[in-house]
TrEMBL record, chain A:
It comes from Coemansia thaxteri. This is Ribosomal RNA-processing protein 40. Pfam families: KH_6, Rrp40_N, RRP40_S1. Belongs to the RRP40 family. It comes from the Eukaryota. Keywords: Cytoplasm, Exosome, Nucleus, RNA-binding, rRNA processing. The gene is RRP40. InterPro entries: Exosome_RNA_bind1/RRP40/RRP4, KH_dom_type_1, KH_dom_type_1_sf, NA-bd_OB-fold, RRP40_KH-I, Rrp40_N_euk, Rrp40_S1.
UniProtKB/TrEMBL annotation, chain B:
It comes from Coemansia thaxteri. One of its GO terms (biological process) is nuclear polyadenylation-dependent rRNA catabolic process. GO terms for molecular function: mRNA 3'-UTR AU-rich region binding. The keyword Nucleus applies. The keyword Nucleus applies. This is Exosome complex component RRP45.
UniProtKB/TrEMBL annotation, chain C:
Pfam families: RNase_PH. The lineage of its organism: Eukaryota, Fungi, Fungi incertae sedis, Zoopagomycota, Kickxellomycotina. It comes from Coemansia thaxteri. It is found in: Nucleus. Keywords: Exosome, Nucleus, rRNA processing. One of its GO terms (molecular function) is RNA binding. This is Exosome non-catalytic core subunit rrp46. GO terms for cellular component: cytoplasmic exosome (RNase complex); nuclear exosome (RNase complex); nucleolus.
Amino acid sequence: MTGVKVVLPGDIIDTQQPDGDEQAVIRLGPGLVQASDEVTAVTAGILRSNSETSQWWVVGNKRRYVAAEGEPVVGVVAARHGEGYRVDIGSAHDALLPLLAFEGATKRNKPNLAVGTAVYARVVVANSVMDPEIECFNSHTGKSEGYGELAEGFMFKCSLGLARRLIDTKAPVLAALGKGLPFEVAVGVNGRVWVNAGTVQSTILVANAIRNSEYLDAKQCRQMVKELLEKQ
Amino acid sequence: MVAEIGPSNIEAAFLLEALKKGTRVDGRGIYDYRTLKIACGPTYGLAEVQLGQTRVLARVSCEVTRPFPDRPTEGIVLFNTELSNMAGPGLESSSKSSTQEVAISRMVERVIKQSRAIDSEALCILAGEKVWTIRIDIHFLDHGGNLIDAASIAAIAALRHFRRPDVTIDGEDAIIHDVRERNPVPLSIHHTPICVTFGFFGVDGELLVLDPSLLEEQVQVSSFTITLNAHREICALNKAGGIPLSANQIQRCTQVALAKVDEVNEKIMLAVKATTA
Amino acid sequence: MGRPDKREPGQIRALHCALGQLNRADGSAQFSAGNTSALCGVYGPVDVKVYDEKLDRALVEVKFRPDIGVSATKDRWVESAVRSTFEREVLAHLHPRTLVQINIQLREGDGSVDATVINATTLALVDAGIPLKSMIAAASCVVLADDTTAVDPTQEEVDAARSTHTFAFSSSSSTRPQSGPVYVDSRGDFTMDEYNRCHDLCAMAAERVLAFMRTVVEGKVTKEALISTA
């Protein structure tokens, strides 16, 4: 990685590619806005760009989730309404989960979730003027694809940055744990992680290992997991 | 701002299942305190306590005032605790937490004031004329569970760390020396009451833990706080509501608390010494 | 006559900062200049009461608590200083119908409280990832009885001052110098010349504070970036 570029709010970004076309349309992602004829950063983080698609964005860490379409989240049912559930996904507004947004759900046969039930779902509607909407299945295929009620196991919170790293299948802490014991994990990019490793002890071990990995690099992760597994 | 909703059903169920096996979800044993850190200073009377993810700041200050007419030879101790949104979202507005706030404030105030931890007669400068008013402000910074214990530790550490300006009496006049002129003096403290809180779980409260975390507080069916000083005397007991507990359990808690109070007192002494020596 | 702590007139006290110490808040910063120290915790964007909801932008709410006693009128003044400074800096239109809540706890006040509070707030907002137009850095300056000026005064100097001035500058005003300060608070008797001297001293001090803030935030961001790419 050559020269990590850290930007702070108010920094003017030079989006000119060395050999680029001056007229090229650039696309701004999270953390950047256009003000008059300049592009400025509005959050702190690492500046990233993709020269092929002319996309620019800022990668930073946060703890408060802002819903975005297509992202997997772990939510907790807060209330039930006539047409669906109101689910807390950690964002400013509760998300709506329609009663029929489950695999195989029909008007006569649909899951009945109690308040406090944890669900793994995907955000389907997210914009700044409407409350977000989530689904526990893929509406194109009608299959659950792993989404739905999280019935057993344990759930905990972490930073949104760690959650995104965990979703990456190469996350060192998950790889190291996977070599030591079997477990299931569902990561919500809203900073909530659900784990189940069969027994209470193993589940606590997995949860603590993931929480500890927040500020550890790959090598330290492997060492930490090794020590935890040995203690067991 | 709306308060965060309580824990999910799986968190509560898992916590109970783990407790039945004698383990806690954060990996602690049932009689383990979270890591306790006490930092005093730089100013006299400032102490910050970190108990796991719970943070409490205590600030002791003083001023010269007139005594109450019915107690002309006693100084005044004022207490202020406020549970604000700083410590957690929605703590300030919701009615549920205001009862919690009152419970915490009363408990800590009772422990310090009514157990006569501070020698109030030593705060008298001129009988009926001038006394010291000692003010204890407790600020809750981060609510990770068990605010009572953290607040009582912070208050005692701040009181032990505090120094008031020295005074000399010349006939009817009292001269208050600037701290740069003459070394300020510590308060006269009779004893140091420390709160130790337990949380109870299960149908009959048969499972118990020491120093409940926020998640444990949200799931517990009852709680019990015992306040002890370094002389192994009980200064206060508090069990407000929740399910009834057996006398045996109270005795068990007392035994555990006795050991913990010694550890905590030692930590307070070290923290105070490190910054005032 | 020198300063009680032997600083140069334009010299600020040692700065110290810790980001993200608080667990419940979405972002937090503790900022200290010498003994003056403030802790700021930010929540946002979070749910807002229907009564306070703004349809086109986020509501920015500020709560300030003093180190000693309950909050009084002078503390409301600090709240309004922070609110008016940051209402224009937070890109509130990006998160309509939400609340950005700024909670500030003064840990200790030994002069330059309003400047320290503003600096803590900037860093807490950055830590929380709230979109901002720019970074804001503030500094205070006093004019003493002998007409000398002293930047980042202690309480002792504030008490002895003829006039006190606090200025906040935006990080984008270093590239556009004509834009001037984003917040000014001046009290006491002073001449235009004294005001200008204080402005210039505070501008230089704010530059140093900004450079310090940049180091702090870069340190945190780089640490996280190295982990994710290792």
